[in-house]
Amino acid sequence: ATPTAVMVATGKGASQGVLIKGGNALEKAHKVKTVVFDKTGTLTVGKPEVVSAVLFSHFSMEEFCDMATAAEANSEHPIAKAVVKHAKKLRQKFGSHTEQVTEAKDFEVHTGAGVSGKVGDKTVLVGNKRLMRTLHVPVESAVEDYISENEQLARTCVLVAIEGKVAGAFAVTDPVKPEAQVVVSFLRSMGISSIMVTGDNWATATAIAKEAGIEKVIAETDPIGKADKIKELQLKGMTVAMVGDGINDSPALVAADVGMAIGAGTDVAIEAADIVLIKSNLEDVITAIDLSRKTISRIR
Ligand code: ADP
Ligand code: MG
């Protein structure tokens, strides 16, 4: 495209809430054959809520929530925010009568798995089954049952281990964005296939993908795994777009021919992307590709 055509298209995009950072992305977007979507915060609203909590130990629900909150206090993850919010509500509801521990010591992030820290003299882990496995915490059958029950309902389970034993768990829901299914089917009509990649577990991921009308799913992957999937598709000769919102999506956003960041996403993702969907609406994935198609066809 000529510099003028790029400028016109960029201006048009901007007026529609699609920020195109350069001519290169605009040139490539019309050739996109596959769109890879992140799950949390991209296909889903990204504001998970705790909808269930259980104890597998002698702790009171309040103590349990406090310890989980302390461990999650420094995490930016949307699940962490859900846990903290739930614990706060619980305290208000029952009138707190104990002093709240606010922050864990030795806080550590386990990317795509959870967090850990020391709350008082106790080691607390908050995360998925993978985190428990990695840190040698056994997951008993009662816990397994709770997990599979909830995953079938498209919920993500958050396990909380205290001193090496699963003390309880939360289940969180994060609804699929209302426009997701329409966007996926419209892309299909444009000859573009959709794939979902996520760090979340297979059962939850599959349930969410189904709601969005996506058939291809890659779950339980880490940030590098997301980028590797993009490269694998490119090796097959495909032009690939990646849509994501998190720090964990940035390697994939960089690897993709066209990286698109959700406007409400993290700064790191926005910086890594070629195109920013300011309104955080998935329909703008189509707006961007359409804009590129029109710009290119006008020139040729
Ligand atoms: P996604 O790819 O869907 O954005 P992530 O890679 O960020 O997901 O995380 C993958 C999984 O790791 C989450 O679904 C969750 O089970 C677990 N996880 C990550 N961070 C946390 C946290 N701070 N608290 C609890 N669980 C977490
Ligand atoms: Mg995400």
UniProtKB/TrEMBL annotation:
Highest taxon of the lineage: Eukaryota
Official protein name in the record: Uncharacterized protein
Entire-sequence positions represented here: 612 to 911 of 980
